[in-house]
Amino acid sequence: MFRKIAFTAIMFTMNILGINAQLLYKISGKDLQKPSYIVGTFHVASSSFIDSIPGLRAAMDASEQVCGELEMKDMTSPENVQKMMAAMMIEGDKTIKDLLTEDEMKRLNAYMTSLLTVDFNNPMIMQQMGKFTPSALSQQLSLVSIVKKLPGFNPQDLLDNAFQLYAAEKQKPVVGLETLDFQINTLYKGKSLERQKQLLMCLVDNQEYNDLMVDRMIKAYYALDLLGLKTLLDEKTNDQCDSTPKEKDDIFGNRNRDWLTKMPSFMSAHSTLFHVGAGHLPGDDGVLQLLKNAGYTVEAVK
Known about the structure:
- A 6-stranded mixed β-sheet has the order 4-3-5-2-1-6, sandwiched between helices.
- It is an alpha/beta fold and 302 residues long.
- The longest helix is centred in the C-terminal third of the chain and has 16 residues, at 207-222.
- The chain has helices at residues 56-62, 78-87, 96-99, 102-116, 123-129, 134-147, 159-169, 180-188, 193-205, 207-222, 226-233, 245-251, 253-259, 263-269, 287-293; strands at residues 24-28, 36-41, 65-68, 174-176, 272-277, 297-300.
């Protein structure tokens, strides 16, 4: 799923883990009887992109189970859909109009009109989205800005879903690294309403920059350019719109380290294909380096 987070202009050398236009990696060594694999995904990419990642079909066939950030079928249960929707709503009887000033609402409406051709002056939009927290609204608007740039986007045919559907078809186990409750707390409950509002206005007031960032991220991912993605994720604007170190760690570092407490047991039991957002792979606190630190051999699949 896309979140506008802090970005820095630090360039990484091309010898970090031997990364060079790769999204798929083999994990072996230590106590593993069979290799496992990890692939970086773009959560709105089409399943057809599988065939653009060298070696991925073979890795899917060789793996005995599939593991994503979440077990996707959990996302669609009525109970969890209701839980997710509840987490996206402002508590009490307040709406977005109660959280923003008159000028902020004017700017938000202008942004929404440019993106959706409608805004909160439309009673139907107000009914559908007026109770969204600023974080939920930022997420939904960011998602719209991305999918508008992906011709033929089909929410029923996504890359992450494809791995788990393939596993189910082949009667292979599907597991998740996180629970829905954990992701809800991370995405919607980790920031004060005031900070959420601040980041929403960063999205609203920097449309040209954000559109350019979306273009660059899409281009980097489809070029299999993991280093390019890392550079974009670390790019800063040096203002309140940058993620704080804690906010960034909540999305990446802390989660990556938590995953490393679970991945060894999954890999020891079954050869596993892990599929996680590509931004989690590179860097000193990325999953690839953490696997190496834990004693595994990590090799790009070419």
